[in-house]
Amino acid sequence: MKVEEERMKNERETEGVFEPKIVGFLCYWCSYTAADLAGVSRMKYPPNLRVMRVMCSSRVDPVFIIKALLDGADGVLVAGCHPGDCHYQKGNYYARRKIALTKRLLESLGLEPERVRLSWIAASEGPRFAEVAKEFTERIRQLGPNPAKGALFL
Amino acid sequence: MIRREEPRIGVYICHCGINISYKVDVEEVVDFASKLEHVVVARDYKFMCSNIGQELIINDIKEYGLNRVVVASCSPRMHEKTFRNACKKAGLNPYLFQMASIRELVSWVTEDEREATEKAKDYVEAAVRRVAKHQPLEPRIVDINPNVLVIGGGIAGMQAALEIAEGGKTVYLVEREPSIGGHMAKFDKTFPTLDCAACILTPKMVSVGQHENIKLFTYSEVEEVSGYIGNFDVKIKKKPRYVLEDKCTGCSECIKGCPVTLPNEFEYGMMDRTAIYRSFPQAVPNVFVIDKEGFSPCRNACPAGLNAHGYVKLVSVGKYEEAFKLIMERVIFPASLGRACPAFCEEECTRCLAGGHVQIRALKRFVADWYYENVGVKLPVELPDVQKDKRVAVVGAGPAGLACAYYLAIQGYPVTVYEALEKPGGMLRYAIPEYRLPNQLVDKEIELIKQAGVEIVCNTPVGEGGKSIDELFGEGYKAVFLAIGAHRDRTMGIPGEDLRGIYTSIGFLRRVNRGEKVELGDKVFVVGGGNSAVDAARVALRLGSKEVTILYRRSRVEMPAFPEEVEAAEEEGVKLQILTNPVAFHGEDGKLSEVECVRMELGEPDESGRRRPIPIEGSNFKVPADSVILAIGQAPESSVFKQEGLEINRDGTLWVDPETLATNREGVFAGGDATKGPSTIVEAIGLGRRAAEYIRRYVEGEDLRAKPYEEHWLETVDKEEVLRRRRYTVSPPTSLVKRPSHERIKDFKEVEATLSEEAALAEAKRCLDCAGCCECRQCELLCEAQAIDHHMKEEIVEVKVGSIIVATGFKTFDPTPLIQYGYKRYPEVYTSIEFERINNAAGPTEGQIRMKDGRVPERVAIIHCVGSRDENTNRYCSRVCCMYSMKFAHLVREKTGAEVFEFYIDIRAPGKMYEEFYNRLQEEGTHFIRGKVAEVTDVAMSPEEEGRLIVVAEDTLAGKVRRIPVDMVILSVGLQAADGAEEVAHLVGISQDQDGWFIELHPKLAPVSTASDGVFIAGCCQGPKDIPDTVSQASGAAAEALSLIMRGQVEVEAATSYIDPEVCVGCQQCKRICMYSAIDYDPARGVCVVNEAICKGCGLCAATCPNKAVTTKHFNNVEIFSELEGILL
Question: Is residue A154, in this structure, part of any structural domain at all?
C-alpha cells in the first residue's frame, strides 16, 4: 500500500473516521457517461469511489466483485442503464440477476450483502451519480472495514 | 506462441491547462508513475491532446522503444481515439494504450487537493498495471453500405435527404405523418425576413418527393434497427393508408362522400376534417389517407359483425338507402332486428360514458322502415348474371337458414330452403309476439330473400317425419345446411304436467301467432326466466288473463331475459315471483286447479356461473291456477339426425366445428339455435352468414381453413382514447316513443314507434366516430381512380443502410396545466402554433386574424416563455419564442392595426438580423413589458376591462403591477422533445438528456454525431433551434454521412468476444443469452464459436461462461483484475 495514503488513512482513523475504499464498475453507455457529466458539471462527491469502465453492466462477473472484496475493497458499486434502456438490449437485466446471486453468496460467506450495490444511472443523470457515490460511501462507512480484507480463503 | 516481450511503458500526465493541475499535484503523480513497474518514462504536459503532446508520445515510442502507453488526462470518451491514433502513427498497436481519466473522475469532482492527487495516482497505477497485460488487437475493417436512412421528414430530414441524394446516394426518408413538411409546413411567415414559409418549403418538399434517389416512406415508422456502422438492417413499418399511393391523384372528390367528422390535428382541432383526408393541400406525397384507428366497439360487439358505426353515420347524412345496403351486407331481416335485437352494440357504445348509448337498434329500424316505405321491397344488391351450378339445400327457414340461403344466393348459388311449418320465418314468425314484431313485416323481409332467388319449400320437413340427408344429396345438392332451430320445449318432469291447462311456451306462442284462439282463464302462471317466459306472460295479458305471474327459481339478477323486456312486462302488470319453483300441478277432472310451489334459496354458483337454487324444505305452498305456461328452455329436434351419422351434443344440439360450422359429416353444415341452443336472432343470422362462406369454400373445393372467416378485422379502439380525442357534449339518447301500458295490453299492436326522420338524424349525429373511418365505403364510389382499398394491411419493408440520420424534431409545450394563463378556459387564449395556423392563409380563418365571434381584435397580448425558463415546466430557453413572438407582433399590427403587448423576461435575439428585427418592432410601436405574467383573467375591475381578458403582470422596469385589458392572448409556448423520441433513441442506440433531447457526441466538436457510430442527429431533436440552425445541422449531418460513405470502409471495434475451443465444454449457455445471436454451436467440435462480425462486445457471455472459456477482448479477466489491483493494492 502506498505509504502516503496509509499515513493519511491512519491519521483519519485515529480521529475516528473510517475512510472506505470503494470500487465502481460502470457501464460505458449510461453510468460512465453520467460520471463524466458529474465531472463536467463540477459536482463534488467523496474521493473514496474509484471507478472502472466496462462496456456493459452484464460484463461484471461475480468473480470481479469477490476479487475486489478480497483485495481490500470495502464496497463494490455496479451501475448500468435503467431497465429497458440497455445499449445491448437487456444486459442490465442479466446484471441484476448476477448481483442478486453475488449478494446471496456473500451472505453465506458471512459478509454484509449491502457492501455490493447495483444502481441504474442514466447518461443524463450526473447529479444522481454524485448522489449515489455519496450515499454509498456513507453506507459503507457505517458498515465499517471489510472483514474479508486480506482473508486468504481463496 | 510468441514469447511476450517485456512491457516498456510510457506514462503521460496531462495538466489540461489548469483543469487537472489546479487539484492534482501533477509532478507528484509523474514521480509516482516513474517508479512503477515496467514504466520506462513518465512525463507531464500542459495539453497532451495537442499536436505537441501527441508528438511527445510518438517520439518516446521511437526513442525508448516503448511498447505500451498510458495517458492520464480527460475522459476516454473525449480523447481515447486521439491517443490511439498517435500510437498507431508511431507503429504501436492502438490497443496497447490505456487512458486514465483524472479530470472528469478526479480534479473536477474532488474538493481536497491531497485526496485528488492520491486518487489520480490510483488511477494511473491501475492503468499502468492494466496496460501491461494488454494484447494487440486488429481492428476489423468493414465495407460501408452507401445508402442512408433519414428518420423524420421535417425541414431537417428533408434537407439532409436532399443533400445526400444530390450527392448520388440513395436515401430512405421515413416520416410518420401522412406528409413530409413537419412543423415548418404549418407556419405562414418566417422570422426575421418575413418570407413566406410555404414559398420556401414547398419547392423543397416537391424536390424530395420527386428525387430519384429518395425513397419516401410517409405514414411509416422505423420498427427495428440492427447491425452496426456501415451495415444497418432497418425494418420500416408502413402503416396502412387505405389509399393506393400510385393511384390516388389527389383530386379530393372522396371527401365529399365521407360522413365522418373528426378534429383536424394539423389545425390543432380548430377545424374539422373527414376520415379520408390530406393534411394540407400541398402535401407530399399528394395522396389521401384514411384515418382508421381500428373497429368501433359497436361493430366488434355484434355477433353478426354488423357495421353499426357505418350505417349510423350514413343515417346522420341522410343516406338511408346506402345505410340499408350496408346493413344487408352483414344481416338480413333489418326491420325485425330493428325491433327485436338485444343490441349488444348499444352496451358497448362509447356514448354510454357520455350521456347514454346511441339508439343504434332504433336507427336500424328507422332505416329499414324508411327503405320499405320509400324504395319498396326491393333487393338492395345486383345478382350475378350467371347462376352457378352447385346447388345447396338449407333445412329450416328461420333466421340462420335464410341468412345462409341469402348470402349464397346473391353470389349466384341456387339454394332451396325446406321448411317443416306452413310459413317461413321460424321463431321470428312463430315465437316473437306481434306486439314486438308484426308478421306482416316478416313477410316483407322474406320477400327480399325470395327476390335473391332463394326457393322456399314449406310443409316439407327434413329429418323427423320427412326427407333424409341422404335423399337431399341424392337430389344433387352439393352441401346441406341444417338450421332446424330449437323448437322442442323442455318439460319439468314433475307430477301433473299432463293436465289440461298446462302449455309449453313455444307451442303456446306458435298457436297465438298463427291466430288460434287460446283460452287461458284469469289466473296464469308462467314458469321460467327467459325471454320466451316474458313473451308468454305479456301475450297472456293481451289474451285477457287478469292475473299473470312469472315464477322463477332464482333471483331477478340471474334472469336470462333482457332487462328492458322484464321492465316492460312489469309495467304492463305482469307479476314476478322469484325464488319460487313449482313441484307439482294438481287438478280436478284432468283440468289444472292448483300449483304447488316451493321456496328456494341461492347456494354456490354452478357451472353457468349463476348461483344454484336450493329448495327450502317445508316451504311448500299451493296457489289456485287456471293455466300454466312452461318456458324453461328449448332444444332442437335432433335425435333423428343421430341415425344419419351426425354427432349430437349432450344437450341435444348438433356438434359443429365452431369455426367452419361443419358437422362431422362431409358436406353437412349446421348453425343457429340447432347448434347453440336458444340464442338471439342476430347470432343466428351471424352463423347463417358464416355457414354461407364456408359452404361456398366447400363446394368450390377450397381449403376451408386457408384464411379466417373475417379476413378484414381490426382491434376495437380504446374508448378512453376516443373520449380524450373527440370533442363532444354529454347528451342523453333520444327517447323512444312507446304506447302507454294500459292501452297496449288491450291488443297486439306494436308497443314501440319508429323514430321520426328528425329524431333519427339528431340521434345519429350523437355518434362519436370511435374508429375514425366508419367503412361506409362512400369514398370508394366517388374515387374514379379506384385508389381506395379499405382492406389494406400494415407492411414491413426491410432496407440496408450504412448510416442513419435522426431528425425527429419536437413538439410544442401544452399550456393546459398552467391554469393561470387560461388556456382552454378562455376561448381567446391561443398557443403560438395555433396562432400560426390562424395567421396562415391556408388555415381555419384563411389568414384573417379574427376572434371566435368574428370581431377584429383591437388589443393583443403575447406572453413569452410559456413552458420555458421555468423551474416548474422546462428550465431551458426554447430559443425561438422571442423571435416568433415579435414576428406575430409585426403581423398582427400589419393585418389588424391592433395594439400589441409583449410580456417578456429577457429578449433573446442572437442571430443575423435578429436584433435589428427587435429594434424595428420597438420602432413600430409594439409595447414591450418586462415581467412574467401572473395571470390572465376575465374578472374586470374597471369599465374599460369589461368584456375583455386582463393580463396581470409586474412591470419590472416600471416597478409596478400592470393590468392590461386585451381581446386576444397568444401564449408563446416552448419546444419539447417529440413524442416517441424515447423509442427512437432505443431503436438506434443513442441517449437522451434530462429534457429528452438527443445527446450529441461532443457539444462543440461533434454536434451532429452520437455515441453510436454511424448515427447522426440534426435539428430540434438535439435541442430547440431555429430554421437556419436546423438546416445547417442537417447539412452537417449529411456531410458526415457522405464522408462515411466516401471512405468506403470503416474500422469497427475489435473488442469482441472469443471462445477458447480448448476450454469450452459446449454447454451453450453463452449461445442462449447472446442478444445478437452472435454465438453458434459447432456440433462437430462440440464447442461454441463467436461470429465476430455480429458480436458487439458487451461481455455478457464472458461473465456467464461457467469455466471461463469466453474472454472479451480488451476487457478480459486478467486486464480487469490488474486494473483492480492497481486501484486497491
Answer: no
